[in-house]
Design a protein that fits this description.
Elements lengths: L13 H21 L5 H8 L3 H13 L4 E4 L5 E4 L12 H15 L7 H8 L3 H8 L11 H17 L1 E9 L2 E15 L2 E8 L4 E6 L3 E10 L20 E7 L4 H8 L4 E3 L5 E7 L2 H9 L5 E5 L1 H17 L3
Antiparallel strand pairs: 1-2, 3-4, 3-7, 4-5, 5-6, 8-10, 8-11, 9-10
Helix pairs in contact: 1-3, 2-3, 4-6, 5-6, 9-10
Length: 321
């Protein structure tokens, strides 16, 4: 939830100020629901406004019918009355449905189920909201769910607590022991990855969760770095992207549409599909092109075509009688 917006973002208009206030009020409500108790100084710092503004906001929230309780003193604070559920006017049905769909997708790779409990807090008719969310299911798990869930839970804890993690990693050139500062979990191309700063390579790397074993949460903590913008999982963070052109046979059009979209290629007069793309990880791209067998021909660059030729010759040697 966003707090106070930067000066000038809304042009100083009355309408802009009202939008900022509504945005902040909803943010305060969410903070009160997430925490058993908060203080006015905390809210003032969180939303970058004065304590007087926070006090006025709390009064507005009370007038809206949400029972906010304030207690003075050393152990005092601001809280929402126990057992209160957000009125349906705070979140629209489509917004609530989107939240529950997202929660259910996370539960597919989580050892803890909390969707029903959260839906009861967010909606008066929790059963109807949950039923509506069931119309769309996003399953983020894989065949390896039994081993995947503990890894995700440990990495989530490491990211939140800023603790190092160590593991054994398997990749094209072999295997090695790694220790990283974990920053983000990413689900992409039907696989889970962790983005972390690798102490061995002194740089950011993406690690596929199914390729790492013996995951350990270390006691040592890290202060944190500015993580790079997330790139596609097929691109290494140290490699520059290179352009390529591949010619595909018409019978594999469905795969290009499925993986890159109907606008990713140009159909020639002979029916063949001209695919222009940029890649960063050559090993991944070689494996991808080989998965098409004889239905793919690399036109450029020459070094990628040479790699494919060498791999194809190696395959041929294995099957020579």
């Amino acid at each position: 939830m966003k707090g106070k917006r930067r000066a000038g973002e809304w042009g100083g208009s009355e309408r802009g100020k009202e939008v900022v206030k509504i945005d902040r009020l909803i943010g305060i409500i969410m903070e009160l629901l997430r925490n058993e108790k908060v203080t006015a100084p905390y809210l003032a710092e969180r939303f970058e406004v004065s304590r007087r503004t926070i006090n006025r906001d709390i009064e507005d929230i009370c007038r809206a019918g949400i029972p906010v309780v304030t207690r003075p003193g050393f152990e005092g604070g601001i809280s929402i009355a126990k057992g209160y559920k957000i009125d349906h006017r705070v979140l629209t049905e489509p917004e609530l449905r989107a939240i529950l769909i997202g929660l259910k997708s996370v539960e597919s790779v989580s050892g803890v189920s909390c969707t029903d409990r959260i839906s009861e807090k967010l909606a008066a008719d929790a059963a109807a909201a949950s039923h509506a969310a069931d119309r769309m299911r996003i399953d983020l798990s894989t065949y390896y769910k039994a081993s995947l869930v503990p890894k995700i839970e440990m990495l989530q804890a490491a990211i939140e607590e800023k603790r190092l993690v160590s593991f054994r990693y398997y990749y094209a050139k072999g295997e090695s022991d790694r220790t990283i500062e974990p920053y983000r979990l990413l689900f992409q191309w039907a696989s889970w990855y962790v983005l972390g700063y690798c102490l061995r390579r002194s740089d950011f790397r993406m690690f596929k969760l199914n390729r790492l074993t013996e995951l350990r949460l270390e006691d040592e903590r890290f202060s944190g770095r500015e993580a790079p913008e997330l790139k596609p999982a097929s691109q290494a963070y140290t490699e520059e992207e290179k352009p390529m052109t591949v010619l595909f046979e018409p019978e594999v059009k469905y795969r290009l549409v499925e993986e890159y979209g109907p606008d990713s290629f140009a159909e020639r007069s002979d029916g063949k599909l001209k695919f222009d793309f940029s890649y960063g990880n050559e090993d991944e791209m070689v494996r991808w092109i080989l998965s098409f067998g004889s239905s793919a021909e690399v036109l450029q660059p020459a070094e990628l075509a040479a790699r494919i030729r060498i791999e194809a010759q190696g395959i041929l040697q294995k099957y020579k009688k």
